[in-house]
């Protein structure tokens, strides 16, 4: 099960983003676990999530859905800033 990091900018208050229930609502049904949040201490509008993803294809499909767009809008995610990194074991 790969671990991924998604980093992006937010347009809303960082506390709103940190306490949002939308991550669990969107990712929980996919079996995604161990969701952790990170904030850039120099720029609290730059944040990241790290999570364990059992099915990358399902995640990719959900990220293209209306539900994902609505969750990102609720959280204040700036969609064009989103970068997803996948754990790579060399």
Overview of this protein structure:
The protein has 90 residues and is of the alpha+beta class. The protein has a single domain (3-86), classed as 2-Layer Sandwich (Alpha-Beta Plaits). A 4-stranded antiparallel beta sheet has the order 2-3-1-4. It has helices at 14-19, 22-27, 56-63, 66-75, and strands at 3-9, 33-40, 43-52, 83-86. The longest helix has 10 residues, at 66-75.
CATH architectural grouping: 2-Layer Sandwich
User: Which structural class fits the helix and strand makeup?
Assistant: alpha+beta
Order of helices and strands: EHHEEHHE
Estimate the strand proportion: 25-35%
Number of helices: 4
CATH class label: Alpha Beta
Say what the CATH topology is: Alpha-Beta Plaits
Principal-axes geometry comes out as globular
Total strands: the figure is 4
The helix content is 25-40%
Instruction: Provide the domain count.
Output: 1
Task: Offer a quick outline of the entry.
The chain is of the alpha+beta class and 90 residues long.
Give the arrangement of secondary structure elements:
Elements: E1 3-9, H1 14-19, H2 22-27, E2 33-40, E3 43-52, H3 56-63, H4 66-75, E4 83-86
Antiparallel strand pairs: 1-3, 1-4, 2-3
């Amino acid at each position: 099960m790969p671990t991924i990091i998604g980093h992006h900018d937010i347009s809303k208050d960082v506390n709103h983003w940190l306490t949002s229930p939308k991550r669990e609502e969107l990712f929980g049904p996919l079996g995604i676990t161990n969701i952790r949040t990170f904030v850039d201490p120099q720029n609290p509008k730059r944040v990241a999530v790290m999570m364990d993803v059992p099915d990358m294809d399902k995640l990719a499909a959900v990220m293209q859905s209306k539900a994902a767009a609505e969750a990102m809008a609720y959280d204040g995610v700036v969609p064009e800033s989103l970068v997803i990194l996948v754990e790579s074991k060399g």
